[in-house]
Amino acid sequence: MKNTFFATLVLCLAFGVTKANYATEGDVFKQKPTSAKKVIRQKTTVPIITGADQTDLYIDYLKGKNVGMVVNQTSVIGKSLTPSPDSLLKRGVLIKKIFGPEHGFRGNAANGARVADEIDAKTGVPVVSLYGKHYKPTDEDLKGLDIIVFDIQDVGTRFYTYISTLHYVMEACAEHNVELMILDRPNPNGYLVDGPVMTDTTYKSFVGMHPIPAAHGMTIGEYAQMINGEGWLKNKVKCQLKVIKLANYKHNMAYQLPVWPSPNLNSQLSILLYPSICLFEGTTLSLGRGTQFPFTVVGHPSLKGKYTFSFTPISIPGVSDNPPLKGQTCYGIDLRNFDAKKLVESKKLNLAWLIELYKAFPDKSHFFNAYINKLWGSEELRKQVEAGKTESEIRQSWEPALSRFKEMRKKYLLYQ
């Protein structure tokens, strides 16, 4: 797979690109043979431009309207990474209300932590939490609003909760005749469409609301079109939708996020590993919450003697206040130097790590917890791993539903 994905990916992983770096997608990087530290950057294509960055396409449309915004710390404009609400307020847009998803409007709440309503100290705009008392905007929340702007960076999985917030915002907008504008952003895992399609409504939850696979390979704008088109909103209502599309984007392009999407996805590698490693949330193991490298390590105290690598989770306020296995030395696998290019080339979730650690775990009756069924969307993964099924056998059970989803998905794609 010889495209710009790998060139960007290798640079990001090798040189430790931080959240202050702006996206370099579309560039080709070539190493000088005489120096391991010098890199020549040759521009071959124009960079991806987010919907938010294309202000000329929507700012006049918003002016004169009472605007609500669903935003978080990833909602930025330009290389200065100015928060989009701050930028639009300065340009005369009347932002009357801000809605914050999981982790809060400014992105400083730990995973799973309930977030309260507040007045934003910087702008003075009321902030309504959609991860506190309720997930869906109420009649009062939408009162007086003409349009809502949804501008949040997603990572392309069924269990990442921003698409669940999208669902409820769309539903509320449809019920109250409020238009929804989406400022589209790239999916850093846009190459990946894989996993079982969730069809068992028994396990429908905020981490699994729709009949889609674990990794859906769409942007927020594309996914919103699918929600509308497939009639997934309550009573099959339709949301009035306006998508500000990305420029110069294809699903197989690499995208170095300029701002991390949540406190525990704090590296480009963790974002690429997330669709596979998040499955360990449904086990008794630690996946690195409470360390500086979450979602790139997995372990448990009882694996001492079977693995030499170890880490100890601690409390990190605002990131992982009370992480699993806090203060206990965990032994397991270290993926911090894993070649993520292998995942991209395979275009598959990796189940090998889950199967390996299950086999190594001494008390198998306590390996999984009840959350695995919500994450997976059924009891099948737990039953298959416990029965000793191979990764290949487990993958076969996803068909033909996965192929049907891929075909249905084509109707809603805005990009190649």
TrEMBL record:
The keyword Ribosomal protein does not apply. InterPro entries: NamZ, NamZ_C, NamZ_N. Transmembrane segments: none annotated. Keywords: Signal. Residues 67-267 form the Peptidoglycan beta-N-acetylmuramidase NamZ N-terminal domain. Residues 272-415 form the Peptidoglycan beta-N-acetylmuramidase NamZ C-terminal domain. GO terms for molecular function: peptidoglycan beta-N-acetylmuramidase activity. Gene3D superfamilies: 3.90.1150.140, Uncharacterised protein PF07075, DUF1343. Residues 1-22 form the signal peptide. Pfam families: NamZ_C, NamZ_N. This is DUF1343 domain-containing protein. It comes from Mucilaginibacter straminoryzae. The lineage of its organism: Bacteria, Pseudomonadati, Bacteroidota, Sphingobacteriia, Sphingobacteriales.
